[in-house]
């Protein structure tokens, strides 16, 4: 007896899967969208129908699973019970299948909304951390600059005393040495002048580094070229507009209305910056640079394919039906989940 019941249940489940999928297509062709009155009538009759089926099948709770109920569309006794309540089998299962489909769409939309909220919260947290790090870095840079000034001032003072006290220097040599010290003091003051901007100070540092590279006899011409080119690339990346974008979220800000197209544009711009940084990096071998660029191109291609894919028709319902599913969703979930 138990074996027959199990076989019957398996058969009903298989039939339910195939029938449930085919019913939606057939019903869409021949049935009109359901109304609010029909949903209320369905919710009133459905519990009694599944209880009747459960008793018929030996009072087993798994018989009430929607996939099992879908397999009863061509069950003679079940159809007779529907008719006794004034239902046509095609109409009852049209509503049944579309409600289940609508609830799945509703659940997916809720999960997507929750996922987007989590992403936005995470992005806000990362942006806040980025702003905090940027502010902290500026404070540290200012403090380090003051320390360098103090150290350099101490060294220059010691050097000036040595020059003035050197009995072997003639007056002209002493004057030239003191003038050179004065120039060094002036450059040091300009580098950390409170009235100058951080960008001016950074530009002075870059020029100083560039001159040091050009004057270094132990660096080949090719190495000098790539090192200076990398400095220029870093300068472009660190422009005020890019810094503001990094500190305030910039183009990585994700508003609640952001669509897939905007997200893809952001990722594309980010990958472009990474590719530029890789291309201008003299310390990455050419073969490795090419491999990294190919990997980034493949990443963009896969992302674009996923975002361009049209999922709008998959699992779609008439607008009026989806609105009713949204209205009665919680009540329907309770009915379909009851033992």
Report on this model:
The two termini are 23 Å apart. The protein has a domain at 2-107 and 315-337. It is built from twelve helices and no strands. The protein is rod-shaped and about 125 Å long. Residues 1-29 and 240-257 have low confidence and may be disordered. The chain is mainly α.
Give a quick account of the main beta sheet: strands, pairing sense, barrel closure. Answer: none
Q: Percent of residues in beta strands?
A: under 5%
Mean pLDDT: 73
How many strand elements?
A: 0
- Specify the overall morphology: rod-shaped
Structural class, from helix and strand content?
A: mainly alpha
List keywords for this structure.
12 helices
Quick gist of this model?
The protein is an all-alpha fold and 339 residues long. It is built from 12 helices and no strands. The chain has a domain at 2-107 and 315-337.
Describe the secondary-structure layout.
Layout: H1 2-30, H2 36-56, H3 66-70, H4 76-84, H5 89-165, H6 171-191, H7 198-215, H8 221-237, H9 240-248, H10 260-279, H11 286-308, H12 319-337
